[in-house]
Amino acid sequence: MLLQCTLQRQLIRGQLISLKEFFIVIGIVAGYGLGSLWVDTVAGWRYMYGISSPIAVIMGFGMWWLPASPRWLLLRAIQRKGDVQNLKDTAILSLCQLQGRTFHDSAPQQVDDIMAELSYIGVENEVTFVEMFRGKCKKALVISAGLVLFQQITGQPSVLYYAASILQSAGFSLASDATRVSILLGVFKLIMTGVVVVVVDRLGRRPLLLGGVSGIVSSFLSLRL
Questions:
Q1: Biggest alpha carbon distance in the chain?
Q2: Taking a C-beta distance cutoff of 8 angstroms, is the pair 155, 220 a contact?
Q3: How the protein sits in the membrane (predicted)?
């Protein structure tokens, strides 16, 4: 059962990651749209920041209701850092919250499978910070940090941040015109991100990554020219 659930999550992992980016781009488009409303207002940036505050507060409160990681709870149970049965019951509730009603009946079996896996691996040695730089953890760290570095070093976030200024230098003399045109840039990014959400698990993350980076490089060369 645990293997089946793991395979199901593997099949949509790329989609889940891309959905996170999709919602970020929705925020970018909303920011462009709201920015265009106050671009000609004196100290309009105060309103732009202020209107995002309620959303941040809602998100902050919402984090209190996030379920704890079932694996972390069961690890604590094995390490005898709490009542074992209580931690198992909490892990079952967390799984039901995370996976939905479809997996409600199988949650207890999944908990038992995770417990068996953790017991087999063994927890007699405390994991230290240095473990991040060894073995499989080191490889995962290098890949994840490399992807984040690669994303930032391309400079594409800078284009998004300064889209209005770049468009002004390209010929849109009025700040209001440049800001409104930047909305089209955000909408285009949103559409393409939506396409990736749909096809990422069929085409694969690596081809999309290489193709996207190639497009970014070509766009920046065109921008420089």
A1: 67
A2: yes
A3: Multi-pass membrane protein
Calculate the alpha carbon distances from 216 to 42, 209, 219 in Å. Answer: 35, 10, 5
Provide the CB-side half-sphere exposure for 145 (13 A, CA).
8
Alpha helices in 122-174 (DSSP H): 135-153, 156-161, 163-169
Helix, strand, coil shares of the chain, percent, nearest 5, are: 85, 0, 15
Element (H, E) at 202: helix 175-203
**C-beta separation of 11 from 193 below 8 A:** no
97's enclosing H/E stretch is: helix 84-99
Taking only the tens place, the pLDDT of each residue in 172-209 is 777 777 788 888 888 988 998 888 888 887 888 788 88
pLDDT > 70 fraction of the chain, expressed in percent and rounded = 88
User: What Å distances lie between residue 28 and 4, 14, 172, CA to CA?
Assistant: 37, 21, 21
Q: Which residues contact 165 (CB under 8 A, 6 or more apart)?
A: 178
